[in-house]
Design a protein that fits this description.
binds NADP nicotinamide-adenine-dinucleotide phosphate; TIM Barrel; about 300 residues; alpha/beta; about 15% strand; globular; single chain; eight-stranded parallel β-sheet
Length: about 300
């Protein structure tokens, strides 16, 4: 059962990506996706949803907030959102963080954000200013834990050292681009920092923008705003990974994306992969990752195929 290190949050094996809400999934579909996701989450853990100020210019947060209000589910959920870059000159300046948090709280119809990320590093603002502003939100009870997204290993280390020196809340987790097709950057940098400093890791694009579902085959035309990014993984290495996924999926009568998500969830330091579906049907193919148990050989087959 994934525990976000250093926190009292015990979360679902799969963190639900909410960037589809108000984008490739309309509000009614988003509500149906959230219903299905929460229904499928064991009662011993909390459903964990990942959104951001910038997704649909707040529309993703608004849909999630409307759903939590309509279903009376706020207390059951772990809600993560992010202070985003947008057009801001200094996105992580204290005033920007305060204003962004208030907007997100309104959109989400809640009095607290469980995990509040810096969406991207901001080298124009001193780390101490950013971390002190986050700390004030924690002290005010508006944010429970703060976290970093898209930070380099070096800057994350500096941020952790800064919060220790200043005696303010430290980043409890890092969100980063990591999946079977994108391994090198995380495994050669952030992974060691997360292990050494006891941080949770939440990998995004866990399905390589849909490529790891296996639907990007030669000659297939996929109607998705992600199609260009996902089809860039097609080629010899992509073929090897999909073949290994198919072998393991066949042994478990599982889907390719469920196996891809399980491999990621099993990697050292990873708390829970973040993935989305634009429909209940797509989500239904991801959820079985929660009960899937891979053998060491199966995990190794996937690791070797994606090397
Ligand atoms: N921190 C950051 O900077 C950052 C950046 C990116 C994402 N994220 C977070 O990570 C989450 C996940 O990223 P993502 O959703 O963009 O990428 P992803 O999880 O790699 O891909 C999900 C997409 O794959 C397709 N898909 C999923 N299941 C499928 C199935 N069973 N059959 C066929 N297609 C399927 C769907 O797209 P189509 O139907 O459109 O093909 C779905 O939206 C986001 O929602 C967001 O919360 C964070």
């Amino acid at each position: 059962m994934p525990q976000l290190p250093g926190t009292d949050l015990t979360v679902s094996d799969l963190c639900l990506g909410a960037n589809v809400f108000g984008w490739t999934a309309d509000e009614a579909t988003s509500f149906a996706i959230l219903d299905r996701y929460v229904d499928a989450t064991p009662s011993t853990v909390q459903p964990f949803v990942d959104t951001a100020e910038s997704y649909g210019d707040g529309e993703s947060e608004r849909i999630l907030g409307a759903w939590m209000a309509a279903r009376g589910q706020r207390d059951r959920m772990v809600v993560a959102t992010k202070a985003s870059r947008g057009e801001k000159a200094h996105p992580l300046a204290a005033g920007e963080i305060r204003a962004a948090a208030e907007r997100s709280l309104r959109n989400l119809q809640t009095d607290r954000i469980d995990v509040y990320y810096a969406h991207h590093d901001d080298e124009t603002t001193p780390l101490e200013e950013t971390l002190t502003a986050f700390d004030e939100l924690v002290r005010a009870g508006k944010v429970r834990y703060v976290a970093a997204s898209n930070y380099s290993a070096k800057r994350l280390t500096e941020a952790l050292d800064t919060s220790e020196r200043a005696g303010v809340a430290r980043y409890a987790a890092v969100q980063t681009h990591y999946n079977l097709m994108e391994r090198a950057a995380f495994e050669s940098g952030l992974r060691d920092v997360a292990a050494d400093r006891g941080l949770g890791v939440l990998p995004y694009f866990a399905l390589a923008k849909g490529f790891l579902t296996g639907k990007y085959r030669p000659g297939e035309q996929i109607d998705s705003p992600r199609a260009k990014g996902a089809s860039a993984y097609a080629g010899e290495r992509g073929d090897r990974v999909l073949a290994a996924l198919a072998t393991v999926a066949g042994a478990h009568q599982a889907t390719l994306p469920a196996v891809a998500l399980r491999w990621l969830a099993d990697q050292s330091t990873v708390t829970a992969p973040i993935a989305s579906g634009r429909s209940v049907e797509q989500l239904a193919e991801l959820l079985p990752m929660q009960d899937l148990v891979l053998t060491d050989d199966q995990r190794q087959l996937l690791t070797d195929a994606s090397a």
